[in-house]
Amino acid sequence: MRNEKRTKNVEISQELFIDLIKYHCIEDHPKNEKICQALEDKMDRLVRRELYTRSLTAPTEEEREAARKEYLDKAGVPAAFRW
């Protein structure tokens, strides 16, 4: 058995996928800013999802609480609305 780390799939919108194809295959460079913004938004969502998952599954209570606080910070939840 090999020790390979499995990669996860990430879903993106069809519009972003087409823009990426045009950018890389057809060299449609005016879409550069739009593509970068969409990818940054996706990365932010991925980071928040990872923090949320870690806030539920971390091995210790301290790690779960730290992940929960970081998730709430990145999600923009005001301190007044937190428990």
Q: Can you characterise this structure?
A:
The longest helix is centred in the middle third of the chain and has 26 residues, at 32-57. The protein starts with 13 loop residues before the first helix and ends in an 8-residue tail after the last helix. 65% of the residues lie in helices and 0% in strands. The chain has a domain at 39-76. It has 83 residues and is mainly α.
Short description:
The chain is mostly helical and 83 residues long. The protein contains three helices and no strands. Helix content is 65%, strand content 0%.
Strand content: under 5%
Order of helices and strands: HHH
Query: Roughly what percent helix?
Result: 55-70%
Please give the radius of gyration in angstroms.
18 Å
First-to-last CA distance = 45 Å
Overall mean confidence score, pLDDT: 89
Uncertain regions: pLDDT < 50 for 5+ in a row? none
Shape: elongated
Number of helices: 3
Main β-sheet description: none
Structural class: mainly alpha
- What's the β-strand tally? 0
